[in-house]
Amino acid sequence: MLFLDGLNSTMTLNNGIEMPRFGLGVWKSDNHAARDSVAAAIRNGYRAIDTAKQYGNEQGTGAGIKLGLKQAGLKREDVFVTTKLFNGDQGNYDKVSKAFEGQLKDLGLDYVDLYLMHWPVDAYYLESYQAMERLLKEGKVRAIGVSNFDNDRMSKLMESADVIPAINQMEFNPTNQERDILKFDTSHKITMTAWSPLGGGKSLTNPVIEKLADKYHRSAAQIILRWEWQREIITVIKSVHEKRIIENSHIFDFELSDEDVETINQLDEGKRGLWYDDFKWHRPSADIGDSVDQWDDTGKPLS
Predict the structure, then answer these.
(1) Residue 18 near residue 48 (C-beta atoms within 8 A)
(2) What is the pLDDT of residue 296?
(3) Structural domain 2-267, CATH architecture
(4) What is the residue-averaged pLDDT of the chain?
């Protein structure tokens, strides 16, 4: 089936690992919503799931993976799972390893396919990445990468790294295309993954996108997601509604013309999407703390 072929499509990372090009993210989902949306995604053909300790829903995500695999008759290795090193867990190997083992426990998994450093905490990101390299060598993860790294920090990281990051997960959408970062990463065989691919919903009401949606008889979201597909950006899209999860994946039976792809390319506002200065941990001497964002739903059993 055409839709499933699309969802099964992969991109080869720089270490030879195959990563699905389209997946479900669970940012700002509580544990129950994460469980239900992840299970729905897997039984409807999604083969990549993206979470993070920062989201406070790794337990729900893990429960959803278990449920979805059972419902779809799949094995663990059929789904590509990404999670991220929390800012407050950055530091030496012992600290990073302990945090990672806790994440595996919450997820109910023996390994993750991709482990990303969520943000470059200036005082710790070089040491933290070395710890992640060790996790890779130990076989606890299949690939490692980063998220929200600008070119300066990526360059500094690569100077001391033994393993070039496989992924840089960045905000990427029609109005924020991070062109300089995409060009730099591509030149070093680092694959970009898009978070906030719909621009937090802002892009859905863009007049250009709405006009193209009418032209192709598609939703605005499908136009944007198809554009990102044709730009060869791995995309992580969030929804907690099964109908929308299915609709978002229906982008493989039509194609935007080269002219229309370029029209969307021109929507880039040229603004840097990174906001390091807004975070206290941007300062090397800052106390970054150890809190995790939670959308609290405690007291309700996941099983």
Answers:
(1) no
(2) 45
(3) Alpha-Beta Barrel (3.20)
(4) 91
Q: What is the mean pLDDT of residues 262-283?
A: 77
pLDDT mean over 223-242: 96
Report domain extents, the chain.
2-267
Give, in order, the Cα–Cα distances in Å from 28 to each of 56, 63, 83, 204, 245. Answer: 8, 17, 14, 19, 16
User: Among all residues, which ones are annotated catalytic?
Assistant: 55
Task: Yes or no: say if 254 and 229 are a contact pair by the CB < 8 Å rule.
Answer: no
Q: Give me the helices (H) in 112-250, please.
A: 125-137, 151-160, 179-187, 207-216, 220-230, 242-248
Instruction: Report how far residue 204's alpha carbon sits from residue 207's, in angstroms, rounded to the nearest whole number.
Output: 9
Q: Are 242 and 44 in contact (CB under 8 A)?
A: yes
Confirm if 44 and 250 have CB atoms less than 8 A apart. Answer: no
Structure tokens at 153: 């920090």
Predicted pLDDT at 8: 92
